[in-house]
Structure formats: structure tokens, C-alpha cells
Fold this protein.
Amino acid sequence: MIEAVSATVVVLGIVVFTLSVIIVVVRVVRRTLRRRRARLAEAPRLALLEFVAEGGTEGAEELIALPQRQWQAAEPGAIALLGKVRGEAHTALVDVFARRGLIEAERADLTHRSRVRRARAAEALGNLEHRPAVLALCALLRDPHAEVRLVAVRALGRIGDPAAAVPLLDSRATADPTPSQLCAQALAQLGPEAEPALIGALEHADARVRVTALDALGLVGSGALIEPVARVLEEDPSLPVRLAAANTLGRMGGRAAVPPLVVALGVDHPDPLRAAAARALGEAGAAGVAEALAGLLADPAYRVAHEAAHALRKAGPAGLAVLRSSPEPHAEEALAVAGLG
């Protein structure tokens, strides 16, 4: 029995020692490979930075002639650089990538079995602003892996093709939807041609899609879109959607946003909506809101009174005058936040 235990201990010791050696070797190999890649990438990286700094006017042929091993080592940094430059430098760098065959390789990787390869390809094509890849990127919005879907959303926003609007909105109506704010940011990058799709989505059967469309419209910020948003605020059956509509009107701002928000302050509306409307009035930056908010400082709903006070704080001299003349504690709090208490 003792001999068996001793043998087991010896075997375990050998296994632990072997695993330790393997771990050390793997770490050394990885460190060596990283250093080798860094050395290989150094010259191309400097050439890329110089090329971009000069607006892409010189150095293209040298980059295209780089040995494949050096280019592969520098490629991740080059792709990241694409996402940071604009104008002629970006156009010239895209041409370098195209002439090295990267665009076709990345398009092929969009359907690769590796999710890492699919995500990297989506990121690269987004940074390349490669419009012919939009349909394939839209297909990745249904990818089974969330990280691939997230990269596809960002890539579509970067490319800015309005054809992506409906697929992006539909990606919010799935069992595992893309994040609303990320999707809204991408939609806002698609330009004015995507606005009809956003307005149409305000009548979508899925409340999540309607909220995302409203968030995107708020980021666009066009005062010409206030009417359909105001209609959602008044008529939509979903409270979260109406809250999003109030926030969007606040972001859009201007005089036209004030009347529907004032209506939403009425006591016949849910308190969360009244509070959101008060906050939105403060964000709208329009004249004439102080009178509408003044009566809410004594509202029995704490959140409504609180938001009204802080909206008045943002409403300029008229709002501050209301706060100074009010005995309500919310008014004192708002003045203290403004440094006037």
C-alpha cells in the first residue's frame, strides 16, 4: 500500500514537473514570436506612418513591394491606422491595401469558419470603408457569435451606406439583439438618406426597434424630424418607447420640440414619462420652458419635481429666476448644483 502511494506521488510529481516545463517553454516561444513580429513590423510601421503623414503622396510603391512576412507583421497596425485617418491619406492607404490583395482576402474571410477571422475581416472592411462588402456585412448581423455581430455593426456605421439601415434595425428584433446604443450610433452614421428608414421604423411591431430608431434620430438631431417623434410620444402604447421619444425631442431641441413635451407633463400621464419630459425640456435649450416647469417644483412625484428643478437650472436666466423665487427643496438643490445656493 505504501509503495503504491509512493509511486503515485512520484508520477504526480513527474506530471507537475512536465507541465511546468511545457508552460515555461510555451511562454518563451510566445515571447520570442512577439519580439520577432515586432522587429519585422518596425520598418513597415515607420513607413506607414510616414506615408500617412505625407498624405499618401509618396511611398506607396515601397509599401506594396514589402516582403509578405514584413507586411503580415505590420498589417494589424495598418488596419487600425485606417480607422484613424481621413481624406487623401485614407484613400491612398486603401489603394495600397487593394493592390496588396487585402480587400479580396478580407471579403473571403467574412464567411470563414473562424469567428476571429470573420470579426477581423469585418473590422478591416469597415476601416477600408468598402461599400461593396455591405451586403455581406449585413449577413454577419445574424452571426451566431455576439462579438462578430458587434464588429459588423461598427463596420457598417463606418462605411455609412444607407442600404444598411433596415438590416441594422431588424437586428434589434432578434432573440439576441445587437446593443441598442451601438446600433443607434451606426444608424446615425448612415446619413440623411437613411432617415426614411428610421421614420418607418417608428411603426415597427417590435418596441426595441422603435426605441433604437428614436435613439438614432436623436443622434441625427434634425429639427425636421420632430413631428413623427412627437406623434410617437403621444400615441405609442409602450412606455419605454414614449420615454425614448421624450429623450429624442430633448436632443433635437428648438421651439418645435417644446409643445409636445409640455403636453407630456400633464398629470394624466405616467410619472416616469412626466419626469422624462421635464428633463427633455431642460435639454431642448428653447425659450419659454420656465413657465411650464415652474408648477412642477411642488409636484407630489419626487422624480418629476427633481427633474423639473434641474431642467430650470439649464433654462437660462428665466429658469434661475423661478428657482430663486421658489421655497421648494428641489429648487434649493438645483441652485446648489449650479453653484448659486
Remarks:
- The longest helix spans residues 2-53.
- Residues 4 and 10 are 10 Å apart (CA to CA).
